[in-house]
Amino acid sequence: MDKAASGWISGFIGMVIFSGSLPATRAAVLGFDPLFLTAARAAIAGLLGLALLVLLRQRRPSGRELVSLLIVALGVVVGFPLLTALALQHVSSAHSLVFIGLLPLSTAIFGVLRAGERPRPAFWLMSALGSALVVAFALREGVAAAPVGDGLMLTAIVVCGLGYAEGGRLSRALGGWQVICWALVLALPVMLSLAILTRPVSFAGIAGGAWMGLAYVSLFSMLIGFMFWYRGLAHGGIAAVGQLQLLQPFFGLALAAALLGERVSLAMLVATLGVVGCVAGARKFAT
Question: I need a labelling partner for 213 at 20 to 30 A (CA). Which of 23, 52, 88, 115 fits?
Fold first, then answer.
């Protein structure tokens, strides 16, 4: 199997894992404060990441790599989890998942700015078309009905795209799983302290669903998913593999309906299937 194909497979696995993040976050915020949830998931994943780095005796990043790791940490360890947790207090996970369709465009833009990638014009057309379908759906549903939630989701997409691109670029030299582990370790002192300070007065009344949500976003969303995702971006190309995020709403909507009992409208399905159709075209013209 060539490197690019391996990258697409790794990216696909990472995307499937990420598709459960927003439904899991939605379940978790029903029992935990968003700030505690953000800190706890990063702290748990950071402790696991630190153990992996020590046990496998990985080299320490250079000074320049530490700057990039800080960008990754701010984007995907702190920014995206906190902003989405806050947004999910105002919108359903099914509604917020559609905004994930904007991630490929955000990631591709930062792939150009940070990694020097140069997709063909037709690639931008396909990526923009997929994003436009997502925006059109959001407008149809009535963004004004939850302006705070939608604004938080849009901001989350921007910081996440930067974190994805920076992590994908750095993974070419440092390694995919090493990047997310070092980023988590870099944020660990702050996030662990914050988790302790914002912990609930009592854990007795927290439902099992909230605990399961916390476990998923800590282990899979914050650690394992990124191991596959950054490897995919590094091997298959940031802009190209990033288009797989267009598929994430499809998997996420199914999970939201199956696990949370949320209503998935026909318009949601049509919008999601529309952006899925853009992935093949974007992949074809990525290089």
Answer: 52
Greatest C-alpha distance within the chain: 55
Say yes or no to pLDDT of 287 above 70.
no
Choose between 94 and 234: higher pLDDT.
Answer: 234
**HEC states along the chain?**
CCHHHHHHHHHHHHHHHHCCHHHHHHHHCCCCCHHHHHHHHHHHHHHHHHHHHHHCCCCCCCHHHHHHHHHHHHHHHHHHHHHHHHHCCCCCHHHHHHHHHHHHHHHHHHHHHHHCCCCCHHHHHHHHHHHHHHHHHHHHHCHHHCHHHHHHHHHHHHHHHHHHHHHHHHHHHHCHHHHHHHHHHHHHHHHHHHHHHCCCCCCCCCCHHHHHHHHHHHHHHHHHHHHHHHHHHHHHCHHHHHHHHHHHHHHHHHHHHHHHCCCCCHHHHHHHHHHHHHHHHHHHCCC
- Output the CA–CA distances (angstroms, integers) from residue 284 to 121, 122, 127, 260, 281, in the order listed: 12, 9, 11, 36, 5
- 27: its two tokens: 């379940």
- pLDDT (0 to 100) of residue 94: 66
- Note the pLDDT of residue 164: 94
- Please state, in angstroms and rounded to a whole number, the distance separating the CA atoms of residues 226 and 221: 7
Q: Is 174:35 a contact under the CB 8 Å cutoff?
A: no
Terminal CA-to-CA distance of the chain, rounded, Å? 19
Mean pLDDT, all residues of the chain: 86
The pTM assigned to this predicted structure is: 0.85
- pLDDT in the model for residue 205: 85
Are the beta carbons of 250 and 65 closer than 8 angstroms? no
Separation CA 246–CA 283 (nearest Å): 12
- Judge whether 59 and 140 are in contact, CB under 8 Å: no
